[in-house]
Write a structure and sequence with these properties.
Elements (H helix, E strand, L loop, with lengths): L1 H26 L7 H22 L11 H8 L35 E2 L7 E6 L15 H17 L4 E7 L15 H4 L12 H11 L3 E6 L3 E3 L12 H4 L4 E4 L2 E4 L4 H17 L4 E4 L16 H9 L6 H23 L4 E4 L18 H4 L4 H7 L4 E2 L14 H10 L6 E6 L11 H13 L5 E6 L2 H6 L4 H9 L24 E3 L2 E3 L8 E10 L2 E9 L4 E3 L3 E9 L7 E6 L1
Parallel strand pairs: 2-3, 2-12, 3-4, 4-8, 8-9, 9-10, 10-11, 11-12
Antiparallel strand pairs: 1-19, 5-7, 6-7, 13-14, 14-17, 15-16, 15-18, 18-19
Helix pairs in contact: 1-2, 4-6, 8-10, 14-16
């Protein structure tokens, strides 16, 4: 029945189409059209016929009246039909298809760009002679770990954000190394591992990052032994492996910076740490060639003579500076090749050369310890410089603000300047707490010249809370947390904003980071027309209980680049 009716419909359609065609030839065209025009006319007519055939091929169904709803049902394609969908049986009309209501859209949370004054707030933690940590060389592992956690908790309480941890004081290691021996300052015997075993550097990094504190690994490149140090060398100590380059200099043993095996050793030790540990920075102090001792020459004549015999033409002083410069450049390039995000910083003696800054007198490190620090800034071989400005503000011979301005003015690559402050001088009389408060304020006043923080020597003063310094710092200097300054020459791309942000009453939750880009989360609160940083959470945190107010939650990466903040209002 259906096929018979279909053929009748087709036959009648083509009769009508032939009539339309003949009529168009007589009324539209004055003469017989070209073959192309005829082809076009028939193409259009055939398309019309096909559509009409599909439309009239079905029996009318009295049980389903033609309405917009039923028309929608009929027009909906059936995936199983080839080539035309079959009509529903008369006795079983097709049930109307109910389209489920769409799920409610996720709550839209606006985003806003917020920021705060980033600032480097560091503390040196010295292991040599057990100055800061560990406090003794005979502590148990649990005592060592407890001391380090106490240091980090104190730093967090004070809103400090960078630990400069000495891990290679004298050619030894406060970490697991296949190159150098375990430090005697850690276990009482050079070459002896902690028992029960743990890796102090790995432990320190993990505990620092839990508290949103950067860890910078501090190396002394050339010193092999301190005066009075009782530990014999381990078999893999650099002085034991290269005794021909280990010189007695006063009460010190010092490796020759001009010897290629010594230079390679320094570089390889540092790069080993860069590769294996999640450190935020590599840090060198001011010991290159040793500080001069009256009447004693540094005994490197054999190495220098070999250089001259090989065709070298530099004077002894220029050759020594070249030795140091080559190592600095090599370390810089090695770090940036291996892990570009790892910062490289140096803390030199605070005076470049006497007379360079107005009225300044003192040791000439350029000639005395052969450190051409100005060249390192001019070449851009550091990410930050922390000159040890270990003098007070007012004495003109070594004035803190004058020296700070000089270093800031000789910084063509616009690297960061973090002044080093001699907090160990705190005595309540000639060095009162107010002296250090003023020094920090002076540093902040030059933020436009990239003076963006301070590093205090040493952590021991904060551990003691000497003269109530902790309370003063917490209530006057570092009242709120801060991230370290960003370094756009390393990376200026912020991470994605937090996802899955949801508010249930006063409980704010968000998704854990899956990109491994987030180091911390920053929470801002709106105060009037401004936004204030209220809290920094570590990367593992995914919730917070909030008081009523308007907040913005941001993601921050390891270089302190912050995303746009997701805004929530708590009632």
């Amino acid at each position: 029945m259906r096929l018979t009716r279909l053929f009748r419909v087709i036959f009648r359609l083509f009769q009508q189409l032939w009539s339309i065609y003949q009529h168009s030839l007589q009324t539209v065209f004055r003469k017989r059209p070209s073959f192309a025009a005829q082809f076009a006319i028939w193409g259009c007519l055939l398309l019309l016929a096909t559509s009409a055939t599909r439309a009239f091929a079905y029996e009318p169904t009295a049980s389903v009246p033609f309405t917009p709803e039923t028309a929608t049902q009929i027009a909906r394609p059936n995936p199983a039909s080839v080539p035309f969908p079959a009509p529903p049986p008369m006795e079983q009309p097709e049930e109307p298809v109910v389209t489920p209501a769409p799920a409610p859209a996720a709550q839209f949370l606006p985003k806003i760009g917020v920021n705060h004054q980033h600032e480097f707030r560091g503390a040196w933690v010295a292991s040599v002679v057990n100055i800061d940590w560990p406090s003794r060389s005979d502590l148990s592992v649990s005592q060592q770990q407890a001391e380090l956690i106490n240091i980090l908790d104190r730093m967090q309480e004070l809103n400090l954000n960078a630990l400069i941890l000495q891990i290679r004081p004298n050619g030894d290691a406060l970490y697991a190394s296949e190159i150098e021996p375990w430090s005697g300052w850690l276990t009482g015997t050079q070459g002896k591992a902690p028992n029960p075993y743990y890796d102090p550097l790995e432990f320190a990094i993990a505990e620092s990052h839990k508290r949103n504190i950067e860890l910078h690994a501090w190396f002394n490149p050339y010193r092999a032994k301190m005066g009075g140090e009782k530990y014999p060398y381990g078999p893999n100590h650099m002085a034991a492996q290269y005794p021909q380059y280990a010189y007695q200099y006063g009460d010190l043993i010092w490796m020759d910076p001009g010897a290629k095996p010594v230079q390679d050793r320094v570089y390889n030790v540092i790069m080993d740490v860069v590769r294996r540990y999640d450190v935020d920075g590599i840090h060198l102090d001011d010991y290159f060639y040793p500080y001069p001792k009256e009447g004693i020459q540094f005994p490197d004549s054999q190495t220098y003579n070999a250089y001259r015999q090989a065709g070298g033409t530099l004077s002894v002083s220029d050759w020594r500076r070249q030795n140091v410069n080559q190592v600095i450049e090599r370390i810089w390039k090695g770090i940036k090749t291996e892990k570009p995000s790892v910062k490289f910083g140096i803390s030199p003696f605070g005076i470049y050369r006497p007379g360079k800054a107005p009225g300044i007198v003192g040791m000439d490190q350029y000639e005395a310890i052969y450190a051409d620090v100005k060249l390192w800034l001019e070449k851009g071989w550091v990410d930050y410089l922390a000159p040890q400005l270990y003098w007070r503000i007012d004495p003109p011979q070594q004035s803190y603000p004058v020296l700070l301005q000089w270093w800031s003015d000789h910084n063509p690559f616009r690297r960061h300047i973090y002044a080093g402050n001699y907090l160990s001088k705190l005595d309540g009389s000639s060095w009162p707490i107010s002296e250090f408060e003023r020094q920090v304020e002076i540093s902040r006043a030059s933020a436009d010249k990239l003076s963006l923080g301070n590093i205090f020597f040493s952590m021991k003063v904060f551990k003691e809370n000497r003269l109530g310094v902790n309370d003063r710092f917490r209530t006057k200097l570092y009242t709120t947390p801060a991230l370290a300054p960003t370094m756009p020459w390393l990376d200026a791309t912020p991470p994605q904003s937090p996802t899955g942000v949801s508010l249930n009453g006063r409980n704010l939750t968000w998704n854990r980071d899956s990109s491994n880009e987030v180091r911390s989360w920053t929470l801002y609160q709106q105060v009037g027309n401004n936004w204030q940083l209220k809290q920094i959470f570590n990367a593992q945190t995914t919730s917070a209980n909030l008081a009523p107010g308007t907040y913005a939650l941001c993601a921050a990466d390891r270089l302190a680049n912050e995303s746009a903040g997701v805004v929530v209002s708590v009632r």
